[in-house]
Design goal:
- The chain is an alpha+beta fold.
- The protein has a single domain, classed as Cation efflux protein, cytoplasmic domain (Alpha-Beta Plaits, 2-Layer Sandwich), CATH 3.30.70.1350.
- It is built from four helices and six strands, in the order E-E-H-E-H-E-E-H-E-H.
- Helix 1 crosses helix 3.
- The termini are far apart.
Length: about 130
C-alpha cells in the first residue's frame, strides 16, 4: 500500500507532507485544549489516536485536508466550547505549521468522563516511563 501524502505546489517546487506528519500536528493541537481526554483509561492522546475509529482521521484532498476527531470531554467543561476549541486549534496548527488548507474539522464527542477519572489519566506514566 502506497504511503499517503499531500503534495503542495510552491513557487520553488513541491512540498510533500506525509499523513503521519499531519496526524502529529493535529494530535498536538488537541493536546493544547483544556477539557479533552482520551477515550480509554490508561492511554494518552497517542493511544487515543491509535486507530481512525478511536480518534483521528485525516482525508487528503486536492491541496487541502479534512479532519475528523472523536473525543471525550471532562464533565464540567462546556462540551460545545471544548469541541470548538479543538476545531480552532487543529485548523490553526495545520494551516500555520504545515501550510495546508483545512476544509472541515468535524468533532464528535463520544463520551463525558468524571473529573476524578481525568485526574487519574493525567498522572499515569506514559509507556516506558516510571
Amino acid at each position: 500500500m502506497a504511503e499517503q501524502k499531500l503534495v503542495l505546489e510552491r513557487p520553488l517546487g513541491q512540498v510533500a507532507l506525509h499523513l503521519a506528519v499531519l496526524q502529529a500536528f493535529a494530535a498536538r493541537a488537541v493536546e493544547k485544549v483544556e477539557g479533552v481526554r482520551p477515550l480509554h483509561a490508561g492511554g494518552g492522546l497517542k493511544t487515543f489516536f491509535a486507530s481512525p475509529e478511536e480518534g483521528l482521521h485525516i482525508t487528503l484532498g486536492e491541496g487541502q485536508v479534512d479532519v475528523e476527531l472523536r473525543i471525550a470531554v471532562v464533565l464540567g467543561y462546556p462540551v460545545h466550547e471544548v469541541a470548538q476549541g479543538v476545531q480552532q486549534a487543529v485548523r490553526e496548527d495545520l494551516e500555520g505549521l504545515a501550510g495546508v488548507r483545512v476544509g472541515r474539522v468535524d468533532v464528535f464527542v463520544r463520551q463525558v468522563i468524571p473529573p476524578q477519572e481525568a485526574l487519574v489519566l493525567e498522572t499515569e506514566p506514559e509507556e516506558g516511563e516510571e
